[in-house]
Structure prediction request, 338 residues.
Amino acid sequence: MSFANVHQAAMKQQSRKGRCLHFSDGLQCNEIISAHSIQKRGQLGLIAESGHVYRLNADLSTLKETEGKPLPKKIGVNRASTFPGMCKQHDNKLFSPIDDHPLAIDHHQVALYAYRSICREYFVKENASISLTEMLGHPGLTSEQSQWLTGAAYGQSLGFERLKRHKLIYDGCLAANDFTGLKFIVFGSTSRCSLQASGLIFPDFDFQGRQLQDLGPETRDLDLLVFFTAPTEYGWAFILAWHESSDLSCQRFINSLAKSGRDGGKIEDMLLRFSLACCENHAIRISWWDSLLTVAKNQAIDFMAVMADPTLGVRADYLATGCEGLADWSFDNVRDVR
Ligand SMILES: [Zn+2]
Prediction:
């Protein structure tokens, strides 16, 4: 087996090791379940066609086929966006306010969506960090492979430690049932929805290409922005949310989004660009993707490749332009809860 295959197999094996990431995990945890990070009924159900959606695929065989670019691949809604990161009892109880009710302007619900997104990323990053570190002990590594692994393992464990700090902040809010520190913007829509996303980012550059924070290893604490789509009473919404401890970068990020809007940018284009570039956890409506022209598909894939390949490097202005006119949805209202 080649080095790349061994690496992928190790990652896969680690990703099957379920555990409960609930803030009060312990004795009361029961059976670990495969939880949807994008809700099956409320979110995937809204865009599924014949029980399927597209999701981004960046496995080795796809990357080989496309010379390093990820591709959307059909997947059944039962399998889309799942991860074994919580026990059944905790998942059912904790997330009932969002799994059983549409999103309202409600701090508790926003905190839960954000928490689910954080738990998924925590699970993925911890897995990557563990499997890369384990690979370092693999016999027969060339010095080049060892060097690459050392760098990659360091990068993943740094990302994991940075995220851990934020999970603790949300753990604290949920345990205390105090959501007053949550801030968010809700873009509401009554039109058709073709994309669902649940992700997070340490905002690096804004929509004008200005740096928000330096993601280099010397910066200890980074601000975190969470984003997700959610069903609402009248349709669906795209939400940007953060805790007040991340105010500095997140407020500037939102102000920059508003400035692009005043300068003539369409919010639908900006949020599509942002979702594709900053989140690998999407579900895409099949007929929407298939209806895009090849040139538009390639443009969207280039944005998704930013996320899939960290070696590409990020251009300061990656959020400034691109993906104009591809979204077939529109937002009718904005609620600013800052
Ligand atoms: Zn549990």
